[in-house]
């Protein structure tokens, strides 16, 4: 896999906004189970747009893309009132989304990451600790735990996903509307 | 809870496979084809990879989770057996007067030593065990009448079989440690001695200054730092004791320790030495976490990636600078 400038942009500028993006989606979309899919779809869209031209302002671009996707989905769902869509149009992203710098950086983020790892299922946790904290290769992890290398690989695959998801939770309670108004959620009748 | 997402499952499998080692040509072609299938594959993979790489920083954070001991040694190691014993009252040690003749009776004793980065467990004929840490030298004289060990340098963990009539004595410089059925470690740095008691109790005595320093009883879950004319006691939590004994599994565990001390610890276990400027704020950077004692290169890499420090490795020394 060759790394492109877009890959770098995506990893360094888009992914750090994941907590903020997820907070936004949670406030705007009632169906929580659909949020991971929405998020991946938003990533796909911003990535494809960036292959044409990398946007100058990543954050507004990401949230505009998110908003447009929600509007598309809401229209397709056809259960959404015009009012809700207007609410979306109204949204001033910069005012309501905490900056990632404000939420968790550096050591605090690492503390939360640690907490996330502590919540992994025991075997997955042990594999992750040996691999990440000790830096042991998978082969040595297998030997040390007395399990097969393919089991270690399976546990890594599991740990990778759980850790990625745990990072979303590295965000404080989202700030609701500036005027104390709770934003309505798309999809509510 | 993990959502069902087939693309993410595939991405995670590819990542785990590459985490195991470089892909062969066929697998690499398969991976490239999978990535090229759609942008969604690509972004999903990039996201997981970024998260997985980020977890590497755990190695240089303040409070990385403490690694469980390796399974094999959990099964046969003493920790499992210690737990209930921790609850029982500390045995009271007896102080026994030993003639302070310098090398007697060690001329006839067994000698044990370890090189830098090595560990060794000595099994004594009375059933007691001594685990030698890195760069350690000691002499043991254990028979029907005498149980004495002289620690010349380094660090060792003692697991002593109780014998009322024959207390087990560790002598290091002018300091003497007498125990009854105890598990404890002794570390010697010059004339400074640190004793950590995991179970039971020991008495620490300053033989050279018997009138200045009273024999000090150190009970389980506490430690004593002894120097000529001064023995200080302090309590330790179970976790602190476990961390202090992490070397028995090849692990160094630090909690909020300045980099200069951490570097000195690593240097005990490695021929290649970490060099941190003696002056300036760099030595005060706080380090926490659980590290493989002999993997000094990995630690240096983490100083670079985690703290942005400059690392110059000439094969003999690793110089750290801003």
From TrEMBL, chain A:
Single GO biological process annotation from the record: DNA-templated transcription initiation
Enumerate the spans annotated as RNA polymerase sigma factor 70 region 4 type domain.
111-161
**Mind telling me which Pfam families this protein's record contains?**
Sigma70_r4_2 (PF08281)
- Keyword Transcription carried by entry: yes
* Molecular function in Gene Ontology: DNA binding; sigma factor activity
Where, by residue number, does the polypeptide cross the bilayer?
Answer: none
Q: Which domain of life is it from?
A: Bacteria
Per UniProt, the keywords (alphabetical) are: Sigma factor, Transcription, Transcription regulation
Family in the record:
Belongs to the sigma-70 factor family. ECF subfamily.
**What's the name of the protein?**
RNA polymerase sigma-70 factor (ECF subfamily)
The scientific name of the source species is Nitrospirillum amazonense
From TrEMBL, chain B:
Q: Which residues form a coiled coil?
A: none
Q: Where does the FecR protein domain lie?
A: 111-202
The highest taxon in the source lineage is Bacteria
User: Mind listing the GO molecular function terms for this protein?
Assistant: sigma factor antagonist activity
Name all FecR N-terminal domain ranges: 9-50
User: What Pfam families does this protein's entry cite?
Assistant: DUF4880, FecR
Show the PANTHER family listed in the entry: PERIPLASMIC SIGNAL SENSOR AND SIGMA FACTOR ACTIVATOR FECR-RELATED, PROTEIN FECR
Name of the protein in its database record: FecR family protein
| Organism per entry | Nitrospirillum amazonense
């Amino acid at each position: 896999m060759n790394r492109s400038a877009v890959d770098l942009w995506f990893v360094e500028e888009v992914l750090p906004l994941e907590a903020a993006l997820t907070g936004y989606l949670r406030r705007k979309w009632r169906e929580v189970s659909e949020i991971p899919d929405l998020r991946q779809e938003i990533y796909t869209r911003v990535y494809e747009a960036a292959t044409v031209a990398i946007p100058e302002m990543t954050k507004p671009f990401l949230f505009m893309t998110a908003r447009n996707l929600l509007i598309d989905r809401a229209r397709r769902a056809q259960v959404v009132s015009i009012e809700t869509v207007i609410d979306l149009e109204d949204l001033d992203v910069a005012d309501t989304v905490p900056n990632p710098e404000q939420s968790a950086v550096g050591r605090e983020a690492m503390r939360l990451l640690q907490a996330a790892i502590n919540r992994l299922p025991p075997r997955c946790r042990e594999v992750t600790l040996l691999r990440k904290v000790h830096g042991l290769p998978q082969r040595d992890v297998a030997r040390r735990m007395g399990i097969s290398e393919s089991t270690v690989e399976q546990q890594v695959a599991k740990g990778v996903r759980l850790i990625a998801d745990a990072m979303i939770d590295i965000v404080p309670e989202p700030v609701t509307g500036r005027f104390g108004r709770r934003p309505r959620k798309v999809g509510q009748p | 809870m993990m959502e069902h997402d087939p693309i993410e499952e595939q991405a995670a499998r590819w990542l785990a496979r590459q985490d195991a080692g470089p892909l062969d040509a066929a697998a690499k072609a398969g991976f490239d084809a999978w990535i090229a299938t759609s942008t969604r594959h690509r972004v999903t993979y990039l996201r997981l990879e970024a998260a997985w790489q980020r977890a590497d920083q755990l190695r240089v954070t303040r409070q990385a989770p403490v690694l469980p001991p390796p399974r094999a040694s959990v099964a046969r190691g003493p920790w499992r057996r210690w737990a209930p014993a921790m609850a029982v009252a500390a045995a009271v040690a007896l102080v026994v007067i030993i003639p302070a003749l310098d090398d007697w009776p060690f001329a006839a004793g067994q000698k044990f030593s370890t090189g830098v980065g090595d560990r060794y467990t000595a099994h004594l004929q009375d059933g007691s065990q001594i685990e030698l840490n890195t760069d350690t030298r000691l002499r043991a004289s254990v028979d029907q009448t005498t149980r004495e060990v002289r620690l010349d340098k380094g660090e060792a963990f003692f697991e002593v079989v109780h014998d009322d009539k024959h207390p087990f004595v560790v002598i290091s410089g002018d300091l003497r440690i007498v125990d009854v059925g105890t598990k404890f470690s002794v570390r010697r740095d010059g004339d400074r001695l640190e004793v950590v008691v995991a179970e039971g109790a020991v008495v620490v005595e300053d033989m050279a200054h018997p009138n200045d320093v009273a024999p000090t009883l150190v009970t389980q879950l506490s430690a004593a730092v002894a120097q000529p004319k001064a023995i200080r006691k302090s309590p330790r939590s179970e976790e602190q004791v476990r961390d202090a004994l992490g070397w028995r599994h090849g692990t160094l565990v630090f909690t909020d320790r300045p980099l200069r001390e951490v570097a000195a610890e690593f240097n005990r276990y490695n021929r290649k030495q970490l060099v941190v400027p003696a002056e300036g704020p760099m030595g005060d950077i706080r380090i926490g976490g659980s590290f493989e004692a002999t993997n000094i290169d990995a630690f240096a890499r983490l100083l670079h990636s985690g703290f942005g420090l400059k690392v110059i490795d000439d094969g003999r020394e690793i110089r750290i600078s801003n």
